[in-house]
Amino acid sequence: MAKVGIVLVTALFIAGCASQIMESYVGKDIREAALDYGPPSNAIDMGDNERAFQWVMNSSFTTPVTTTTTGSVTSYGPGSWINTNTTVTGGETVNSSCIYTLMARWNERSESWIVTGFRKPRFTCE
Fold first, then answer.
1. What's the distance, CA 109 to chain centroid?
2. Residue 24 vs residues 67, 68, 115, 121, 126: alpha-carbon distances, Å
3. Whole-angstrom Cα distance, residue 69 to residue 73?
């Protein structure tokens, strides 16, 4: 399980901070995010000309496979007998789903939704 944690932390470090990416859309038309990530999975009217747009990002990875073989040799006269035990660990596929939400307000002049903020995703999605 420690290897899974190391892989997750490394992936997060390489990918950068999701909040920084989401913050880069503040003040822009929501269509900018749609151009980068496709249409939102969900849109929720929040009242007062505000709407939440959500994207669901699914990912998966497979943990590395490790094979460990141990054994012992027992002698019987001129011959020998070998007993071995092989343990295979890893190879599990880990699936993850993250929801990213941008908040936007309707702008009459530009006739578009302008991003005003975002909800911080859960830690494992950051």
1. 37
2. 45, 47, 10, 15, 15
3. 13
63 Cβ contact list (under 8 Å, min separation 6): 3, 4, 7, 90, 91, 92, 93, 94
Helix (H, G, I), strand (E, B) or coil at 77: coil
- Give the model confidence (pLDDT) of 115-125 as tens digits: 999 998 888 88
Give the separation between CA 37 and CA 27, rounded to whole angstroms.
17
24 CB-near residues (< 8 Å, 6+ apart): none
pLDDT at 112 over 60: yes
Report field, pTM of the whole predicted structure over 0.70: no
Q: Are 55 and 33 in contact (CB under 8 A)?
A: yes
